[in-house]
Backbone:
């Protein structure tokens, strides 16, 4: 019998306990990977190719406070600005749903070609959107979810404005960081139940990245000391500021992850201590045969590390396969569009598993080191 075979047989001596130990490590690491990926997706939203050129302009007091429509004429004259569109939240509920499963924004009908250039759609969709006032365009994720196609009509009941609006689907777009939204015309909102003269916020397209700082500064100064001061920021900065409204998500996820790891260490260390305690007589015989403390420690460490590695392979590997090849959009009902298990997260979880194997072997190794051959041989199996 080789040393490797000896360690393997010892690890599987109690197959039920070994299976439960590996399963607990796998389940805990699967949860840890899920938490880390969810944190990454929430705090690092995806960016599009056009994000570096887009600017969000909102009310300086609050994002919920409207801005006067007359600001557009001033913004369009700022050097470096290539396109401007209003961006007004509608807050509509689809077919009596309790909540809003997708967002709806009123924009300038020409904005898809000048500001949101990453939105890809059939040419007839752009033409219909520009010509028909009650038309809208929908992201392909939402269109697939509700079975909507060009030419379909539906009604949205607004939670912001008094009443509802009927829309006709002009086209289905894709290619943006978030293909769940619905975009319709600001003039349709104004003429129907909106508040003419006001918009939710502005989105701008800057000519070149080099002009971005100057545009931000010019827009902020243009409305300084007015009744509607604004805050202009890049799309990336706006995304991060919007996420910060959720509270300190990092602390929450870090706290849960810490509890998961701590509990896992306690369970695994207890299991290893129990397994080694049952083999005190065998280890005493090995001592009597001339095996040194560091060799016995290597046996225990290899067994502990092996169980942790098996759990990591199942937990981390299973999470990678599940989230990489599974349809995360359907599984989360559109909350997450992507759920990427990055090499960094895999490495972090693997390090946790390796540390778990080492820590779990410390207490049993100390007990074996302190054990005398005589006392060990007196131990009952």
Residues:
């Amino acid at each position: 019998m080789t040393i490797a075979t000896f360690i393997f047989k010892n690890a599987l001596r109690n197959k039920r306990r070994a299976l439960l130990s590996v399963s607990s490590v796998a389940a805990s690491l699967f949860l840890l990977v899920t938490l880390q990926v969810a944190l990454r997706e929430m705090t690092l939203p995806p960016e599009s190719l056009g994000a570096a050129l887009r600017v969000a302009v909102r009310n300086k007091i609050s994002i919920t406070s409207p801005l006067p429509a007359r600001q557009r004429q001033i913004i369009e004259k700022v050097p470096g600005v290539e396109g401007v569109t209003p961006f007004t939240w509608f807050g509509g509920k689809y077919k009596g749903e309790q909540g809003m499963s997708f967002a709806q924004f009123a924009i300038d009908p020409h904005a898809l070609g000048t500001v949101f250039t990453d939105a890809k759609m059939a040419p007839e969709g752009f033409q219909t959107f520009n010509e028909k006032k009650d038309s809208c365009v929908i992201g392909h994720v939402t269109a697939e979810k509700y079975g909507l196609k060009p030419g379909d009509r539906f009604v949205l009941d607004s939670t912001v404005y008094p009443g509802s609006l009927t829309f006709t689907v002009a086209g289905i777009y894709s290619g943006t960081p978030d293909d769940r939204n619905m975009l319709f015309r600001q003039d349709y909102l104004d003429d129907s139940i909106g508040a003419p003269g006001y918009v939710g916020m502005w989105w701008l397209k800057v000519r070149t990245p080099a002009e971005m700082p100057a545009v931000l500064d010019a827009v902020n100064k243009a409305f300084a000391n007015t009744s509607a001061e604004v805050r202009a920021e890049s799309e990336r900065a706006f995304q991060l500021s919007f996420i910060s409204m959720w509270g300190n998500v990092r602390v929450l996820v870090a706290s849960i992850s810490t509890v998961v790891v701590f509990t896992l260490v306690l369970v695994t260390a207890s299991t290893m201590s129990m397994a080694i305690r049952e083999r005190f007589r065998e280890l005493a015989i090995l001592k009597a045969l001339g095996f040194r403390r560091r060799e016995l420690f290597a046996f225990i460490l290899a067994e502990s590390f092996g169980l942790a590695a098996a759990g990591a392979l199942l937990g981390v590997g299973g999470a990678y396969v599940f989230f990489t090849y599974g349809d995360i959009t359907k599984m989360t009902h559109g909350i997450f569009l992507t759920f990427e298990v990055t090499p960094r997260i895999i490495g972090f979880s693997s390090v946790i598993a390796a540390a778990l194997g080492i820590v779990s072997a410390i207490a049993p190794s100390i007990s074996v080191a302190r054990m005398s051959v005589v006392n060990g041989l007196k131990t009952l199996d």
Remarks:
- The mean pLDDT is 82.
